Structure formats: C-alpha cells, structure tokens
Amino acid sequence: MRAFLIGRWQPFHKGHLEIIKKISAEVDEIIVGIGSCQKSHTLTDPFTAGERMMMITKTLENYDINYYAIPIIDIDYNAVWVSSVESLTPPFTTIYTGNSLVRELFSERNYVVKKPELYNRTDYSGTKIRKKMLDGSAWEHLVPEEVVKVIEEIDGINRIRRLSEKDYDEE
Ligand code: NAD
C-alpha cells in the first residue's frame, strides 16, 4: 500500500520525522510531498524546495524507509488541486494529514484519509522553530541533526534574519 503525506517542512523537524517513522510501519511506500514548492525566502517559508528536499533525504538516509520526495506546487484553484497532485505523484490510496483543507479535498475524491498523531506539538512546531531561529533562541535540538547541517550549509539563519530587516527605520 502506498500513502501520501504532504507538508511544507519549513523546516523538517523531529515531529515530522516521528510521523514518517510511524506511517512507514503501516504502509509499503510513502510519498512525501514537498508542499508550496514554489515558495521560499519569506519568514513563513524561508527554505527552497531543494533545501527542504536535502533536509528530508539526508535525514531519512539513516532509516529503512521506502519513500519518494516530490515537490508539489500550490495552485490557486482548490477544486482541481487533487488532480494536480495526482499528475505529479505515483498512485496512492491513502493520505495522512492534519490539515483540514487537505483532508476535505482528498475525502471528496474518495481517498482514505488518516490523521497522524501529533508529537510534542508544544515544541515541534515549524512556526515556533522559525521564531526561535529569528530571535536567537536554541532551535537545533528540535530538528534532526542533518537538518542543522543543511541550514548551516545554506546559511539559513542569517537568511531569516536578513529577511526580517526593515527597509527603513521606524520612528
Ligand atoms: P505542515 O508542514 O504544517 O505539516 C505537515 C504535516 O505534519 C501535517 O500533516 C501536520 O499535521 C504534521 N505535523 C506538524 N507538526 C507535527 C508534530 N509535532 N507531530 C506530528 N505531526 C506533525 O504542512 P501542511 O500545512 O499540512 O501542508 C499542506 C500543504 O498543502 C501546503 O503546502 C499547502 O499550500 C498545500 N495545499 C495546497 C492547495 C492548493 O494549492 N490549492 C490546497 C491545499 C493544500
């Protein structure tokens, strides 16, 4: 059985790794969709699809998991988004998602939709990790060590800080 899991992975954190490990015990192959692949260089989506691909593939090299990682572009047309996903991925029967819009769109197309369990959502949250990266708090323990290395390689923390700079001094 092949299943689909889509996320923005901004960045890929330990909660994401836990759900992939859990799903891999239930299915033969996982298709990891790298959602909003066209987005990067913003405070909510700082990393490119290629950088997120590195975070996922370098982390999953350490595990015996059969997966495909596939960039998935957003389209401003929810009613046909599932067809767009289908055009980019191997066939699958089941989707795991905690996102209500994704759940609704795939349910309407008769996919089996499962909700993955959340792991330590208090700490394992992309929004909170990006905030820590910006304000100088420790974030490294919240992501796999390969993700730390990728973010160092691309100088990701300085990117986020530069993106947060104001164009002018506020009075
Ligand atoms: P996300 O990165 O926030 O989350 C990815 C998955 O990880 C989710 O299923 C979430 O429940 C799970 N997760 C998060 N924290 C966790 C934790 N601590 N423990 C366990 N699991 C955890 O991504 P998302 O918002 O679900 O991504 C949806 C993607 O689909 C986005 O890129 C969105 O733009 C795209 N989308 C596009 C369209 C369109 O183009 N029309 C429509 C719907 C969705």
Automatic annotation (TrEMBL):
Transmembrane segments: none annotated. The keyword Amino-acid biosynthesis does not apply. Its EC number is 2.7.7.1. It is an enzyme of class 2 (transferase). Pathway: Cofactor biosynthesis; NAD(+) biosynthesis; NAD(+) from nicotinamide D-ribonucleotide: step 1/1. It catalyses: beta-nicotinamide D-ribonucleotide + ATP + H(+) = diphosphate + NAD(+). It holds the Pfam family CTP_transf_like. Residues 5-131 form the Cytidyltransferase-like domain. One of its GO terms (biological process) is NAD+ biosynthetic process. Keywords: ATP-binding, Cytoplasm, NAD, Nucleotide-binding, Nucleotidyltransferase, Pyridine nucleotide biosynthesis, Transferase. GO terms for molecular function: ATP binding; nicotinamide-nucleotide adenylyltransferase activity. GO terms for cellular component: cytoplasm. InterPro entries: Cyt_trans-like, NMN_Atrans_arc, Rossmann-like_a/b/a_fold. Its main location: cytoplasm. Belongs to the archaeal NMN adenylyltransferase family. This is Nicotinamide-nucleotide adenylyltransferase. It comes from Methanococcus maripaludis (Methanococcus deltae).
